[in-house]
Design brief:
Shape: globular
Number of strands: 12
CATH topology of the largest domain: Rossmann fold
Largest sheet: 6 strands, mixed
CATH class of the largest domain: Alpha Beta
Helix content: 25-40%
Number of domains: 2
CATH architecture of the largest domain: 3-Layer(aba) Sandwich
Strand order of the largest sheet: 2-1-3-5-6-4
Structural class: alpha/beta
Length: 261
């Protein structure tokens, strides 16, 4: 039996086990997918191996640790320097990133996005920023402090901390922080967020399963909003197929996972 898991902190809210086990059932595979609360990100590969996993997903806040610790990194994850999918291949743990294509697939219905503001500077922001720029969208990154902005500055992204930010007009505003996941906090000052929303069309929160304060505020300003459900779905479809060397039917995986929502 193949064993899979998701690593994160927190992780109890994750529906990844439901998604992946639904695909396992639909494809009649001999496998099982669980979840693991990992407090120390640097332990991720040791834990992966000790649990005898064939593959795993990685969520907040361990994506950068996964990138640093896996044996090899492939695809867009090399540029992003963040890994959300681990696969055992030839006794090595290989890192991939399906967040990037998963996010873009999730916003395909949004029309005429010229520029985007991303709140936060973690591993998920790296994935979103790279895929949006690859698709011709101008990206601005805003983080509470300048501490984590160097990665983005070195790669030519427009970056600001709260102290030096003067907002412009953005088609799309994205919350890529954990603000609102376990509390009622916002990822940025409410008054300044309202000012930004006044000239925006779309808002996306990568958090799923609840209406966050960020999305409530965006809706009150008449923005078209999405939570992280579709991003979660599409990154999971791509990740699950990677677990099996991209040999499975993507259509069956997607249809089975959609039944979970």
């Amino acid at each position: 039996m193949k064993l899979f898991s998701i690593f994160g902190n927190p992780v109890s809210h994750s529906i990844s086990p439901l998604l992946h086990n639904s695909a396992i059932k639909a494809l009649t595979l001999n496998a099982c997918y669980g979840r693991f609360l990992l407090e120390e990100g640097e332990e991720i590969i040791r834990k992966f191996n000790s649990l005898n996993l064939s593959g795993a997903n990685v969520t907040i806040p361990h994506k950068e640790w996964a990138y640093k610790k896996c044996d090899e990194v492939k695809g867009i994850a090399k540029n992003i320097e963040a890994v959300n999918t681990l696969v055992k291949e030839d006794n090595k743990v290989i890192g991939y990133n399906t967040d990037a294509p998963g996010f873009y697939e999730s916003i395909k219905e949004f029309k005429e996005i010229k520029n985007a503001l991303i709140l936060g500077a973690g591993g998920t922001t790296k994935a979103i920023a790279y895929i949006l720029r690859e698709k011709g969208i101008n990206v601005t990154i805003l983080n509470r402090s300048s501490k984590r902005l160097e990665f983005f500055q070195n790669r030519g992204f427009e970056c600001y901390s709260w102290n030096d930010f003067s907002p412009e007009n953005y088609s799309l505003v994205i919350n890529a922080t954990s603000a609102g996941l376990n509390n009622n906090s916002l990822p940025y000052e409410e008054k300044r967020l309202k000012d930004i929303f006044n000239t925006s069309k779309y808002a996306v929160d990568i958090i799923y399963g609840k209406e966050t304060p960020f999305l409530k505020l965006a809706k009150s300003n008449n923005l078209t909003c999405k939570n992280g459900k579709d991003m979660l779905l599409y990154q999971a479809v791509l990740a699950f197929n990677l677990f099996y060397g991209n040999r499975l039917s993507q259509k069956i995986i997607e249809e089975s996972m959609k039944k979970v929502f």
